[in-house]
Amino acid sequence: MIPVLRPRRSVLYMPGANARALEKARSLPADGLIIDLEDAVAPDAKAEARQQVAQALAAGGYGPREVVVRVNGFETPWFEADLACFAQAAATGAGPDALLIPKIARAETLRAIGARLDALGAPASLKLWAMIETPQAVQDVAKIAAAAQDPVSRLGVLVLGTNDLAKETGARIVPGRAPMQAWLSLCVLAARAGGVEVLDGVWNDFRDLDGLARECREAAEMGFDGKTLIHPTQLDPCNAAFTPPAGEVEAARALIAAFDLPEHAGKGVIQIEGRMYERMHADIARKTVALAEAIAARS
Ligand SMILES: CC(C)(COP(=O)(O)OP(=O)(O)OC[C@H]1O[C@@H](n2cnc3c(N)ncnc32)[C@H](O)[C@@H]1OP(=O)(O)O)[C@@H](O)C(=O)NCCC(=O)NCCSC(=O)C[C@H](O)C(=O)O
Ligand SMILES: [Mg+2]
């Protein structure tokens, strides 16, 4: 059975204090939006930004875009008020789809936040996304992703924070990301084992769209479900990189149809034009078709 997919090819951050960005996001071709209350909002502007974001969510107009609020960290003075604000908004039907928790280091923290949301009366539909952006989080990413098996954690998606990883480790952010490849792959592996989705980190040099396109292709090849972004011009190249090409979708449909032929009933392996296909390839093909259909349904 192929799950109904929600495309998360492009997920755009914007500062919660930036009213123009909150407005503009209603018409941008992003699969998802992350409205930030953490690093992109100065300490003195936190309370006002929180209210502005709550008002923007209540006003709505974000259509099919998945809306996520990145709250301040678990140990900051703003965390509890952020959580209470969006738990209450979710309880009245005007909340985000998920809260993104920065600098998660342990699975227990997710469970504690999930339990706090339960206590605040937030509906189960309010999910948690976890940022993987500390050395400890990368080392423990399998346990963090596995927390998704426990409904109290509400975990749905892992999000890489490559800027913080560079800061914490001294690794350089370079084209091809050789210094971080092992960590990125570990996160993809952990996400798949835990049954959650995983989004790549941001490309800071927002005027270099060729560099961005290269990094999006690399991320798609590594198995990421999508990439987080910081500027509207990054949306089209990112959506293109994570959309299955028409030829791939056509080939996937042909493979599914081939396995459905009466002469192939009961066969575990077939050949088409000199290439071997097993039923696992038909499973991959079904996922490709489901993603392409979900993307088509959105547009
Ligand atoms: C990077 C920016 C500060 C650049 O802003 P600006 O100089 O205003 O750009 P432009 O003049 O080119 O903008 C053109 C129009 O697009 C709108 N715009 C710009 N960015 C966004 C956006 N992110 N979302 C929605 N709309 C946006 C402008 O308002 C202009 O509109 P118009 O008036 O119609 O012309 C800016 O892009 C920005 O703030 N980006 C997001 C920064 C952010 O949220 N950072 C935090 C997350 S990244 C991170 O922390 C990752 C992780 O934690 C890690 O550790 O790696
Ligand atoms: Mg960060």
UniProtKB/TrEMBL annotation:
Gene3D superfamilies listed in its UniProt record: Phosphoenolpyruvate-binding domains
Keyword check for Metal-binding: yes
Cofactor entry: Mg(2+)
UniProt domain HpcH/HpaI aldolase/citrate lyase: residue ranges: 9-232
Keywords recorded for this protein, A-Z: Lyase, Magnesium, Metal-binding
One GO MF term: lyase activity
InterPro entries: Aldolase/citrate-lyase_domain, Citrate_lyase_beta/mcl1/mcl2, Pyrv/PenolPyrv_kinase-like_dom, Pyrv_kinase-like_dom_sf
Family to which the UniProt record says this protein belongs: Belongs to the HpcH/HpaI aldolase family.
Name of protein: HpcH/HpaI aldolase/citrate lyase family protein
Species of origin: Ancylobacter oerskovii
